[in-house]
User: Fold this.
Amino acid sequence: MQKLQFLLFFCVFIACEAPKKKAILSPILESQQYITVLGTAQDAGYPHIGCQKECCRNFYTGLHKKQKVVSLGLIDLEKNQKWLFEATPDMVTQLANLEQNHLKKNPIIDGVFLTHAHIGHYSGLMYFGREALGGRGIRIFAMPKMKAYLSTNGPWKQLVKLGNIVFTELAHLTTIQLNNHLKVTPFLVPHRDEFSETVGYKIEGKQKTALFIPDINKWAKWSKDIVEEVKKVDIAFLDATFLKSGEINRPISEIPHPFIEETVALFKNETFATKQKVIFIHFNHTNPALQENSKERKTLEKEGFRVAFEGMQIGL
Assistant:
């Protein structure tokens, strides 16, 4: 009798708990079109090559977890389509994330949007080649110099020659209509353009619009006012490479980025609602705000800003 009562209790408990777990694992978005964050770290990821400092040592002691390089997925469940922003060194697992947790289909991706020719943003294209996926006609959205660089330099030009990738050439402020729900507009931003120009993107859905600017020099170098640009959209993923001056032992003139503290200062007198639009992304390994429980991240969130994390979803 006691065994029967226990089994009945166990079955009732499972029946009550199962829907709760399902709700946690499968959050309901307002829209069938959405952005998901696939990576948040600067080009070399976290932990960083050659780093023996506490920031990366904490990974090897199990205190912090691996952070993938900056990438966004754009998904339209209604149209059965998905796109990738950036082809990172972590692209294999980022594409698998899209397949397993968002939309499984053939081809593996409907297109990849590139921002510029720095290693964390295009080197993942190698996985589309002969030695790996052996892709056929994968659409790459790229600006003219980016397209020319990939087309004329090995090993990337082999991807073009073998038809692993094909290009859709972009132009500054010229909108690409992906379908009747989604459109993407590239815009030039100042950055270290050794091999290509650099762009950010405006991603527009039926209800919301997002900015994606993972790399830029100081905001003052841009022809636009970042505060005003953020006010025009619903979400803005902004360059957060370094927290403040003196964070690294290299001349910042070699790798200029807006410090988070500089961006925060620009938004100091703005409303909480405006600050909530800002989602910091593209963190160097030295940036403590990269880590989930850091006091620096908690301070940013207390001030009204948000910090990107893998798995974050934004409905469009």
User: Anything to note?
Assistant: Residues 34 and 315 are 4 Å apart (CA to CA). The chain has one domain: 30-315. The domain at 30-315 is CATH 3.60.15.10 (Metallo-beta-lactamase; Chain A).
